[in-house]
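Q: How would the C-alpha cells look for this protein?
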Amino acid sequence: MQILVVDDDPLAAAMTSAILEESGHETMVAENAIVALERLAAHGTLKVVVADLNMPLVSGIELFQEMTLQGYNLPFVLLTGDNPEELADRTTEMAACLMKDEYLEERLPNLLLDLGLVS
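A: Here is the predicted structure in C-alpha cell form.
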C-alpha cells in the first residue's frame, strides 16, 4: 500500500517511512502540507496519509481539513509529540492520533491492521 508521510523534520519523516516500509508499505514523503496536497493530486494510488501535527504554516490538523474540503477521503493518521488524548476532540474524523514515541514502531503498523487497511 502507498502511504504519504508528511513531516517538516527530515529525520522524523525518514523514521516514519522506515517503520512503514518495514511493514511492507511503499512511502512517499512530503516536507509540508502544500507539497502533500500536490502529491495527493499527482498520485491517485496513495491510500493513507500519516502527518505530523506541528508543522510551519499549515499544521497536520489544517492539512486534514483542507484535504476534506478538496474531497480527499483517505484515512488520516496524525502524529504528535504532545498528548494524543488531548487532541481527541479535534481529531474525531481522523483515523487516529498517535504519540511519536518509542512505541510508534509497533503501534503504527498495528493501527493499519486494526483499521482494516492491510491484511
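The first strand starts at residue 2 and ends at 6.

The chain has a mean pLDDT of 93.

Upvote if useful.
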